[in-house]
Amino acid sequence: MNAVESPLIFTAESHTYILDGEPVPSVTEILRGAGLIADSQYSDPRAMDRGRAVHSACHYLDEGDLDEASVGREIAPYVRAYQLFLEQSGCVPEMAETRVWSRIHRYAGTLDRLARLADARVLYDLKTGPPEKWHGAQLGGYAIALAESVGITVDSMFCLHLGADGRYSIREHRAPQSHRQFLAALAKWRGIK
After folding, report:
1. Are 68 and 85 in contact, with CB atoms under 8 Å apart?
2. pTM score, whole prediction
3. Tens digits of residue pLDDT in 112-164
4. Mean pLDDT of the 28-54 span
5. How many C-beta atoms surround the C-beta of residue 63 within 10 A?
């Protein structure tokens, strides 16, 4: 993907995706529009800021560029949980915060991590909140777009829940079911729109 020019343009300020010159919805926009994600889940600015800060710190950790002194007290336990996961699992991230798209289904998104875990290629999303019913559909959307835009299929998918206590938990999501959940949400979103 790095060697080929991407047909996708992302504007961070408005969080919009343009694919082949046309606006397309994001995975999250589709799930929210289909009623899977309640608006209240994105209404707490403090939780959203925390999530962004944790994602950013974990990204630096993956790249080996994390300045631990720059990590705030509230964020540090989540980052320790992520570091503990990496150490205990032997997981090696290959892609982080990567934009993917589907020309077939006309949507795009930014996946959290694609990694090697043992002999498997895994897709996972970092979460600082509790498990939600829509998480599997979210991963399914990213997996479909990853396979189409980059040509990579994954062996497994999971949400990595990072806790304020410095612990983590893993919730696996199955590919066929998660793919179907996302495509059903996409069909519903298109029907509403």
Report:
1. no
2. 0.92
3. 999 999 999 999 999 998 999 999 999 999 999 999 999 999 999 999 999 99
4. 85
5. 10
Which H or E element spans position 184? helix 175-192
Backbone angles phi, psi at 115, to 5 degrees: -150, 170
Cβ atoms of 139 and 36 within 8 Å: the answer is no
Q: Greatest CA span in the chain, whole angstroms?
A: 49
- For residue 161, the 8-state DSSP code is E
The C-alpha atoms of residue 160 and residue 172 are separated, in whole angstroms, by: 9
**CA–CA dist 86, 93 (Å, integer):** 9
Tokens linked to 148: 């189409």
Half-sphere exposure of 130 (CA within 13 A, CB side): 3
Residues linked to residue 127 through DSSP beta bridges, in sequence order = 161
Question: Tokens 């410095």 map to which residue?
Answer: 166
Residue 70 to residue 84: CA distance in whole angstroms: 19
Cβ atoms < 10 Å from Cβ of 177: 12
CB 107 within 8 A of CB 101: yes
